[in-house]
Amino acid sequence: MQIRTLEIGVGLFLLAGILALLLLALRVSGLSYGANGDTYKLYAHFDNIAGLTVRAKVTMAGVTIGKVTAIDLDRDSYTGRVTMEVEKRVDNLPADSTASILTAGLLGEKYIGISVGGDEELLKDGGTIRDTQSALVLEDLIGKFLLNTVNKESK
């Protein structure tokens, strides 16, 4: 009988561990972030979106304030158009705010960081952030560095 209770205890412990790993996987994937429904849409156009995905975080001062809901190609300007849902509690973003595609760590996930401007006019639902900074592509930097090194050696 004692062995049976030990087996049940180990089974429950294993089940709790599997549930904890499942919860961790959901939180890391971004599926658990659920805005409370009170959101508004903002748009931003980037020259290079490299690595940004739908459900990526939108942050301001390190605090998550929304998520990316769609990424499309703007057929008129040939730039990437990002649609973001931002929480209504952050409804005081100035119109001259800046959106940048940032990387968590050296090779981590991409997300959008918003820097606040100083304009008195505010962004409204359906508004567009005009001032953007595209993603920094590590391969491009390495290529430029190598090309620059080769050019210096050939002179």
UniProtKB/TrEMBL annotation:
<dbReference type="InterPro" id="IPR003399">
    <property type="entry name" value="Mce/MlaD"/>
</dbReference>
<dbReference type="InterPro" id="IPR052336">
    <property type="entry name" value="MlaD_Phospholipid_Transporter"/>
</dbReference>
<dbReference type="Pfam" id="PF02470">
    <property type="entry name" value="MlaD"/>
</dbReference>
<feature type="domain" description="Mce/MlaD">
    <location>
        <begin position="39"/>
        <end position="116"/>
    </location>
</feature>
<dbReference type="InterPro" id="IPR030970">
    <property type="entry name" value="ABC_MlaD"/>
</dbReference>
<protein>
    <submittedName>
        <fullName>Outer membrane lipid asymmetry maintenance protein MlaD</fullName>
    </submittedName>
</protein>
